[in-house]
Amino acid sequence: MLEQLKKEVYEANMQLPQLGLVTFTWGNVSGIDREQGLFVIKPSGVEYDKLTPADMVVVDLAGKVVEGKLNPSSDTPTHTYLYNHFPKIGGIVHTHSPWAVAFAAAKMDIPALNTTHADTFYTDVPAADALNKEEIAADYECNTGKTIVRTFKERNLDYLATPAALVSQHGPFCWGSTPDKAVYNAKVLEVVAEEDYHTLQLTRKNCELPQYLLDKHYYRKHGANAYYGQTSAKSFSHN
Amino acid sequence: MLEQLKKEVYEANMQLPQLGLVTFTWGNVSGIDREQGLFVIKPSGVEYDKLTPADMVVVDLAGKVVEGKLNPSSDTPTHTYLYNHFPKIGGIVHTHSPWAVAFAAAKMDIPALNTTHADTFYTDVPAADALNKEEIAADYECNTGKTIVRTFKERNLDYLATPAALVSQHGPFCWGSTPDKAVYNAKVLEVVAEEDYHTLQLTRKNCELPQYLLDKHYYRKHGANAYYGQTSAKSFSHN
Amino acid sequence: MLEQLKKEVYEANMQLPQLGLVTFTWGNVSGIDREQGLFVIKPSGVEYDKLTPADMVVVDLAGKVVEGKLNPSSDTPTHTYLYNHFPKIGGIVHTHSPWAVAFAAAKMDIPALNTTHADTFYTDVPAADALNKEEIAADYECNTGKTIVRTFKERNLDYLATPAALVSQHGPFCWGSTPDKAVYNAKVLEVVAEEDYHTLQLTRKNCELPQYLLDKHYYRKHGANAYYGQTSAKSFSHN
Amino acid sequence: MLEQLKKEVYEANMQLPQLGLVTFTWGNVSGIDREQGLFVIKPSGVEYDKLTPADMVVVDLAGKVVEGKLNPSSDTPTHTYLYNHFPKIGGIVHTHSPWAVAFAAAKMDIPALNTTHADTFYTDVPAADALNKEEIAADYECNTGKTIVRTFKERNLDYLATPAALVSQHGPFCWGSTPDKAVYNAKVLEVVAEEDYHTLQLTRKNCELPQYLLDKHYYRKHGANAYYGQTSAKSFSHN
């Protein structure tokens, strides 16, 4: 069942330790088959060097396990909520990567301060509101998805152009057209969080990127007029 | 004698360099057999790549060497004191991991600022008082254990729920139900110390976690109602 | 065509991930054959582990592709402009190395604060002005070269003695007598950016190097009276 | 000639990149045969992966090359001066390790803030005065040794108990009873520089170690009453 997608999701998960994005088992990637309405996700708490493609768990868009011997990631309800409310994404990744976590704990957006950021994220990456007592007491993981979606609505953000969010006090969630691209975005987020931290210690004055530079770098790589890389246009996907 | 425990303690010691927690020989792990009242500890000042399971030293709860050709770790009296006063722990680790040391030198607790912390530590990790002149002059290593235990009593902390302490001006001691889990906790402590340092440079306002989020994340992984990982409940051990 | 130069440029590109200067494909090196007026550059967006010497693209000094199946780096117009206006350089490298980017985003020069800097860079490494809206809207990459060259003119800097610049909000460009030496300079820049960042957090008072120390260290390694290394003088090249 | 010492010095040099203390060729180790009054030092500017024991250069205490096809390190006059004025040391290492350089550029001592420091360095590690214009213009490298020795005299420091110094605006010099122990001290210095940096960003108040803790940790490892490691006393050497 969904053997190809399981393999893709497995490989995307295995990139996390290679890219320095996880300690122990603290990260999970999923990928969705939109036609069948099923997604594949890492099992909970399994060490990366023991993971196999066959360990991946298949879940439907109501959050029910459809196939798999292991428990799915405890963050499965967050993935489910995001797939239901961000209908064009194909993969999701959650990590506790340390620079993104440092901003999340400070409840600060990761601001757009350089072109590395603008190449992947069209705006500041928002720090979604921390959950309140009631949101934590019941349906915690589902509410984690809700605070992200609510933040994108409130700020009028395009989830394809800004494929990441921090959950305040917690950490980053990233997504993309595929599991592999979601992981790519998670690595970019970590890199720009580190760069931004250092820039903000050097100066906090007038360092936000102007809109025209965000436009230039973002659309140099994304959309119909992209000219970075080996294909003349990348109209299918924002990332 | 205690061959299985020696192997476990050896392997836990060997994780320290792999996890980036030690420079040279600056760390030691021990593990206890509670039935026999004996613990096994790394010998003093031996390089990790020359260590073997047979080099481990067996010590009783009065701190006397029972078996072993090498001197035990110079921190053996600290381990002895902790095993005697924290009766439910099965393993102890001491390192000079650099982020934890940075907080210890500042005599600052490692505050609970994010869910990575709450997943393992139910409260701030306390910086135990630095030893005074008299405590250093005689029985230094034993007094190092005493300041930790005293701090837990004074602050009314549960040593199973907060399985780590800093000794001010010195460094971290961590523990767990097994030597392996003690090392796991030592790595988590180092990761959250690094994250907290950066968060505190971004902001020092209103960044302490609320109690309800500490409750949620800690009990998601620990205790009778835990639901993280592949076992439905983890009632035996807090970590 | 230019097989030897392609090999040199390929090898210089492959040094970038080895030296920790690039994430993913975010960097490019070129090298020029001044007699033929042609330069060789990395193709755009190709992963380093898939790159071969034959993938290198040959470009003339008008910026036109002369040979190659792949698109050249999207930064090719910047390289072209620099080769035309810095006539004695033989290689150029652009990266998004994170410490240099942190300074670029802060629009701050990388100041000469220690002898590591002075061994390679005779002055502060300038942060060239960020491009304005018009400069970004048309001929962006060419204008990136222009702001660098304009900065060197305005500040009366010798591009051989200071073989690097930051482009504000973007990142570093470095150069040298060969592609290999350009990469060497890019690594030095990243190292001194990291050192300077930490020095500036310790103190911002009176830490600029005096001119006589810049003279000493720079000319110990460069020019007719150099005495570092195994050749008695290095009169041919500044680096 | 001095084949065993050449091998020791070679191996000590090769430890520098393994311990993360050097970039490119920016470091050198020497070792002395006190009976013959000759020391062995790394050649200038040779890459570590091309170095062999036979490349080591033999120099006398007047600074003259006695044997060797290659130029000795450009820092040879500094080593010569230190061997002449610190008569009990057996090895010297100079690096541009980045955390120590950050303090040197700030002209700040590396303060004794934790026991990791006190285990190896009995006092703050001093930042020797930067050289003035005249000291740089002539006999620069010899004057680099002089500022170190002068600083130890002025502050009444024991060079065996504090086996390291920073040269302001430049970087660290470390020494020990052997080349290997000098390298060990250089690594400790880099580790405590990193830890101290972070501690000083957390707090600058009341964080200096008290003398009784310096005494305890230093003499736990050094001198007649040392009890760390596998030998009951280490009276021969302070390190």
Automatic annotation (TrEMBL), chains A, B, C, D:
GO-annotated molecular function: L-ribulose-phosphate 4-epimerase activity
SUPFAM superfamilies named among the record's database cross-references: AraD/HMP-PK domain-like (SSF53639)
Keywords, alphabetical: Isomerase, Metal-binding, Zinc
Listed cofactors: Zn(2+)
Stored InterPro entries: Aldolase_class_II_sugar_metab, Aldolase_II/adducin_N, Aldolase_II/adducin_N_sf
Span of domain Class II aldolase/adducin N-terminal: 7-197
Enzyme Commission code: 5.1.3.4
Catalytic activity from the UniProt record: L-ribulose 5-phosphate = D-xylulose 5-phosphate
Presence of keyword Methyltransferase: no
Coiled-coil spans in chain: none
Cell inner membrane found in the keyword field: no
PANTHER family noted in UniProt: FUCULOSE PHOSPHATE ALDOLASE, L-RIBULOSE-5-PHOSPHATE 4-EPIMERASE SGBE
Family under the similarity heading: Belongs to the aldolase class II family. AraD/FucA subfamily.
Protein name as annotated: L-ribulose-5-phosphate 4-epimerase
Species of provenance: Lactobacillus kullabergensis
Encoding gene (name): araD
